Amino acid sequence: MTDLRTDDFDFDLPEELIASRPAERRDDSRMLVINRAEQSITHAKFKDIQDYLNPEDLLVLNNTRVVRARYFSDDEKIELVRVAKESPTLWRCMVRPGKRMKVGREVVVGGIIGTVTEIDEEGYRVIQWTEEIDEEQWGHLALPHYMQREAEDADLERYQTVFAKEEGAIAAPTAGLHFTPELLSKLNHTFLTLHVGVGTFRPVKANLVKDHHMHSENFVLDAEATQKINQTSRVVAVGTTVTRVLEHLGQTEKKGALTPAAGDTNIFIHPPFQPKIVDALITNFHLPKSSLMMLVSSFAGRELIMEAYRQAIEEKYRFFSYGDCMLIL
Q: Over the stretch 7-23, which tens digit does the pLDDT of each residue have?
């Protein structure tokens, strides 16, 4: 295969199709359905997803919980996004503007002093606080920049899946946002955990896809979920985060023979990658030239994905985190 270029995954998106707020009801989202065997594209509602699934299908969802990762200094001159919490008082942060935060510099949040002790290879600042910060009082959700607004009280509930449990994500596993408790109760499902990091917002800057360096994220697949996955005939991954975990494990283990695991993955899924564990995928619409566009293209092929996106734009689907979704069968 000719080396794919990042520009091969580009498309023009009218700004008005970017969803800055969620649908009134979670399951009111529209759902574009790609049938790979038939090479067809149809349009549906997410609430009707059962019509496209078999009773024995197993949905695998990511039960990570979004934390308040965004903070501002008391003088409002410094913005911090916590990418890792080494301890209650030792954080690894992305900061703006970075030039003001050299090693030894101090920042004050909620009256508590933090000192930059290190700048790591990713450019993140390691900050030591004199005491623990009250996250409920001073923390904010780090909404994606393309929403072009600050987080509101309503986001504390809607930018969280109804099954969110394990704290640690910076961004929501957005394919899961469409589920209501009622709908989920009707579907055969299980959970794994992958804490979505700030890397999910990072664009692919390399000209050639193969030259992109993928970010790493922490995951857990427990014994109960492993057993269910091994016993099912069809695995339906709810989101790219679930896909990354299962295909990471699929590099060393065979379908039906997964074992419980925990660790980090930096798997980069792009054509001509062939999924080994995931049989079907529910996913939102992704940013142009993003690693997630490349991932979904591994499932349906670049040409069919690009045609699906063309139709989604024509039909005025809502895009990105609070937008509509796609089902790849």
A: 999 999 999 999 999 99
